[in-house]
From TrEMBL:
InterPro entries: AAA+_ATPase (IPR003593), ABC_Ni/Peptide_Import (IPR050388), ABC_transporter-like_ATP-bd (IPR003439), ABC_transporter-like_CS (IPR017871), Oligopep_ABC_C (IPR013563), P-loop_NTPase (IPR027417). SUPFAM superfamilies: P-loop containing nucleoside triphosphate hydrolases. This is ABC transporter ATP-binding protein. Belongs to the ABC transporter superfamily. Residues 4-254 form the ABC transporter domain. GO terms for molecular function: ATP binding. It is a peripheral membrane protein. PROSITE patterns: ABC_TRANSPORTER_1 (PS00211), ABC_TRANSPORTER_2 (PS50893). It is found in: Cell inner membrane.
Length: 320
């Protein structure tokens, strides 16, 4: 049985201008100990997916349909009390900005102690030892000293490591990381990615890593979901997708990455921009930007399985 099963998840935002469907029948599964990468441009639905999985979508948004099963449990039926037990214990989240999850007026040690004490009956030295070990696991030097520091006394990279330690401290089954390295320099980013991969491997924790940069997840994830306008348009093993993308949008994301062989040349960019959710084109949302567009694209392409992969395209690469 998969650790996480998402079936036809629909999340909508209701406003005066109409209903914006941020997630349109999103489906994927995740096994224990595996890393799933979710990539796409801004506005593709990546963060809404994360917030939907954590049941953190606030009004005017709502989950309008679909199913989320965690270890066989239907989370759509979970009560507020059940969610309080799940969040931070069995399912944890790392936000893009660590200050969203760190209290600026509480010391680092107190915040991590609180995360543990809510879910476990640890006190005194045993609690402090667990906090120190969590900080040490994410590469923070002198954790005993860092426990006495406030968030503003740490660098951005250190704050993000603390946020990751806070998510890992109760040994959850699933961690959802929503672009946690976007604001960091490439050296710190590489260190955190390396440490997260090792933590997932050593602890058996499953990881959903959300990023707009496909190069970030290609060395981290086992499987990748490419999102566009609220839909998963391609899904499969990351090595296969990077080597041979099927959807033109996926190829556009890969082609836009800088290459050593193209030093000094202008980088490729996908023409146009993502459409507003309130005025999506009929059929395939990517069609106005696609060089392979045909009249058939005016209808929504179905999910097509090809071996271990899935895509939504009437004219996938390698055909025509």
């Amino acid at each position: 049985m998969a650790l996480l099963e998402v079936n036809n998840l629909v999340t909508e935002f209701h406003g005066r201008a109409g209903v914006a469907r941020a997630l349109d029948h999103v489906s994927f599964t995740l096994e224990a100990g595996k890393v799933l990468g979710i990539v796409g441009e801004s506005g593709s639905g990546k963060s809404v997916t994360a917030f939907s999985l954590m049941n953190l979508v606030d009004a005017p948004g709502r989950i309008a349909g679909g199913e989320i099963r965690f270890k066989g449990e239907d989370l759509q039926r979970a009560t507020a009390r059940r969610w309080s037990k799940l969040r931070g214990d069995r399912i944890a989240m790392v936000f893009q900005d660590p200050m969203m999850s760190l209290n600026p007026v509480m010391k680092i040690g107190d915040q991590l102690r609180e995360t543990v004490s809510i879910h476990q009956r640890l006190r005194g030295k045993m609690l402090d030892d667990k906090v120190c070990e969590a900080l040490r696991r994410v590469g923070i030097p002198a954790p005993e000293e860092r426990m006495r520091a406030y968030p503003h006394e740490l660098s951005g990279g250190m704050r993000q490591r603390v946020a990751i330690a806070n998510a890992m401290i109760n040994d959850p089954d699933l961690i959802i990381a929503d672009e946690p390295t976007t604001a960091l320099d490439v050296t710190i980013q590489a260190q955190i990615l390396f440490e997260m991969k090792n933590l997932a491997r050593d602890s058996g924790t499953a990881l959903i890593w959300i990023s707009h940069d496909i190069s970030v997840v290609k060395d981290l994830a086992d499987e990748i979901c490419v999102m566009y306008a609220g839909r998963i348009i391609e899904r499969g093993p990351v090595d296969e997708i990077i080597a041979q993308p099927l959807h033109p949008y996926t190829k556009g994301l890969i082609d836009s990455l800088p290459q050593a062989s193209s030093r000094g040349q202008r980088l490729y960019s996908i023409p146009g921009s993502a459409p507003p959710l309130l005025s999506l084109p009929p059929g395939c949302a990517f069609a106005p930007r696609c060089s392979r567009r045909n009249a058939t694209c005016d209808t929504i392409p179905p999910v097509v399985a090809v071996g271990t992969r899935e895509h939504r395209c009437f004219y996938p690469l390698g055909t025509l």
